[in-house]
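User: I need a structural model of P-loop containing nucleoside triphosphate hydrolases superfamily protein from Perilla frutescens var. hirtella for a docking pre-check later this week. Nothing fancy, just the predicted structure tokens so I can convert them on my end. Input:
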Amino acid sequence: MLVQLRHRLLNPNLSSLLNFPSPNPHKSPPFSLSLRASISQKTNSRTASTADPSKPAAAASEAARFARTMLFVPPGIEPDDVTEDMVLPGSNIVVGPYAGDAKIKEVNFVKSSNRPKECPRDDRPEFAMLGRSNVGKSSLINSLVRKKEVALTSKKPGKTQLINHYLVNKSWYIVDLPGYGFANAPESARMDWSSFTKGYFLNRETLVSVLLLVDASVPPQKIDLDCANWLGRNNIPMTFVFTKCDKLKGGKKAKRPDENIRDFQQLIRENYRQHPPWIMTSSVTGLGRDELLLHMSQLRNYWDQE
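Assistant: Understood. Predicted structure tokens for P-loop containing nucleoside triphosphate hydrolases superfamily protein:
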């Protein structure tokens, strides 16, 4: 299991994922927790692992080390207990007991906010979508909710200039944040990302996780790495969502999306002791849609128990 899973994570094979069946959601058992439940890499090392006595000690230790450094092991699972079939396809995300109903039955636009303090204050958990302005953020939102134009798409980078809240199933939010790096946006529309979006991250107590979107059709971009490093330094939980995994850029020297993802992951491993959760997606083919929603469900269900 260890060798096969390591190869699968370090060498993502896009073609093998296009028709991969989605796993069955696990039902979440009743429980109560008193922890803040900010989902981050720290939760993975919060409890000590217990080796399976049926495994050789060295193999169990190596498997646990691999799980801790390469996989996102959610609360409720020990690294020693992870098996290959528990890892969502096209990702490093382990499905745990907190995963539940991931279906989106209803979505409604709530409001646009000019400042973080104007955002809804009703204690519902939320996931923030963040990325470069042409990364496909609106397309991913529309794909997740299976409705066109819930989030307006545009060929002009930098169109989203507000914090937009969408209420899902009357119980949690998808938050569409302004994109960064939009060089073609008009001067009057540009903003100081540091004072605007960062203020939301640092003060939003209902934020479960940031979905940091990264364009897999192009080589790793410094601006994405800088954003990831800032989130990491401020202990803000995040999941890398690789978009446009179906696209192939022209040119003899152009790399495939899975090659760009591998290069990006290598850079992340140089700065993180544990690799944050990541998943491959495509708004065109639907790749990763159900898997991402399942991942979000287990983060949300754990957060709800605090």
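Before docking, keep this in mind: The CA atoms of residues 131 and 213 lie 5 Å apart.
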